[in-house]
Amino acid sequence: MSGEVFVSFANSEGRKYPDGITLLEISKDAQEFFDTPIVAARINNEIKNLESQVTANCRIEFLDLTTDEGNKIYQRSLAFVMVTAVQELFPDGEVTVEHSLGNGLYCELHLGRDVTPDDITKLEQQIQVIIKENRPITKRTLTIAEAISLFSTSGQLEKVKLLKQLNRDKVNIYYCGTAYDYMYGTMVPSTGFITLFGLAFYKPGFILRSPNKDNYAVLPPFNDQPKLAQIFREAERWGSILKCGYVSSLNDYASKNEIGNIIRIAEALHEKKIAQIADFVSEHRDAVRIILVAGPSSSGKTTFAQRLGIQLRVNGITPFPISLDDYFVDRDHTPRDEKGDYDFESIESIDLKLFNEHLTMLLNGEAVSIPTYNFRTGQREFNDKVIQIKSNQPLIIEGIHGLNERLTSAIPRDHKIKIYISALTQLSIDNHNRIPTTDTRLIRRIVRDSQFRGHDALRTLELWQSVRRGEERNIFPFQEEADIMFNSALIYELGVLKKYAEPLLRKVDVSQYQYSEAKRLLNFLGYFTSIDEGDIPKNSILREFIGESCF
Description:
Layout: E1 4-9, E2 15-18, E3 21-22, H1 23-30, E4 38-43, E5 46-48, E6 53-54, E7 58-64, H2 68-89, E8 94-100, E9 105-110, H3 117-132, E10 138-143, H4 144-153, H5 157-165, E11 170-176, E12 179-181, E13 198-202, E14 205-209, H6 226-241, H7 247-255, H8 259-283, E15 290-294, H9 301-314, E16 320-323, H10 352-363, E17 368-369, E18 372-374, E19 379-381, E20 386-387, E21 395-398, E22 416-422, E23 428-430, E24 433-434, H11 437-452, H12 457-474, E25 484-487, H13 493-506, H14 515-525, H15 543-546
Parallel strand pairs: 1-7, 15-21, 15-22, 16-21, 22-25
Antiparallel strand pairs: 1-2, 3-6, 4-5, 4-7, 8-9, 9-14, 10-11, 11-12, 13-14, 17-20, 18-19, 23-24
Helix pairs in contact: 2-3, 4-5, 5-7, 8-9, 11-12, 11-13, 13-14
InterPro entries: P-loop_NTPase (IPR027417), PRK/URK (IPR006083), Thr/Ala-tRNA-synth_IIc_edit (IPR018163)
Keywords: Kinase, Transferase
Domain Phosphoribulokinase/uridine kinase: 290-488
């Protein structure tokens, strides 16, 4: 029948609606099936905001706060409301969204003076006012020229710089009252969708908190992470040294053929930091028998361990590296998660008994035949690889579980140094759109899995949620137990990874569930100018993912 569309749903029977009806109107019929507010929808594997119209027969999966996508939309929308509140409360001030920290977003308010707890209290009250008014959050599609003019008028020069570099005809600008901003990603239709948030002074900035998808009814408690905060501050200093805090600045270096210097300085910062860590280990050489290198997937643990080993040799220490990956149980013994899928991130996927037996034997000076894990066959193999270490020779063990005492329970704590490594990027898209560390690691993993593990991008995306769950359970809770933290991000790397990742992501078809995530990553990589890898040294952590590593 003309004038109607048929909509099928993921959790209820389909029905007909008038042609041109919005997703917001349809969502009112579906809300009863959800415990939290619906904030967006996936239509034929593409994520759409609720203001979108339905003009053809389709299948709709509504996204509420219990989904990863819905939770990100809520957090992004809350950040926009916060930006709006700052513009209204402090018209001559500026706010920057920096990075995640302690179950929230760390932000900084720039007022030309020291920010006080009273300033943050006033900001929280203004956010509450905006939410109570339930103002529409309206998306308007502007030409690039119109958007450049808009942000030039308001003096937001970083956004102007980025917009001039985009290879796009149009961009979406979001409005809330008289406030407007360029926000990367889908938003909720109105401020009233923000039902729960928290704001707390955290010198020199503040923490903006929102519910997480696993417990959406309450705010997660702020979990102070001083060691991690220090590493983020270090990343900010590195960005200042390189004069490259935003993507547009990186693109400028690439387009002006000045990227070689950025690569060399970034790599030198890594080398200096690794040398400092080696010096710390050397100062404790009398007690240390094991150096544990831990971190989430694709943080560069393997290359870091190799480079640390070289720096230790400079200090007269000859370590022996052991990879935790070689102690995976055979595939048919791998534990499964709640969905029945293999849980490769669980500590139970490691043969803890065998691993601790081997550690004890090695530290006692005995010869040990260690295994090698074959990722293609999913089997642990013994290929007559026998090692034996001296009493003054520490082991370097890298793997995601290094900070967990269960992993090395047979070895006393004072014989171990724990190092946490993750890719905490120094870059932001602009002052209000940060680059999540998970995106950098996911893109690294997509490239590495294609290069060395025989996986296409679809397979990596399929596994990623399981990987992330494993990190939340097995890695992040132990971060602050590290003796040392190392940031493996390289400020230039996304420009290099772009040419490797884009062809892989384009192969994810619209008929596949992971298409929306592939499309999001492609849009994200579209902000970057491609960077040639010719100047990247063979010992770079990035070589672990793109190839030609000397290790």
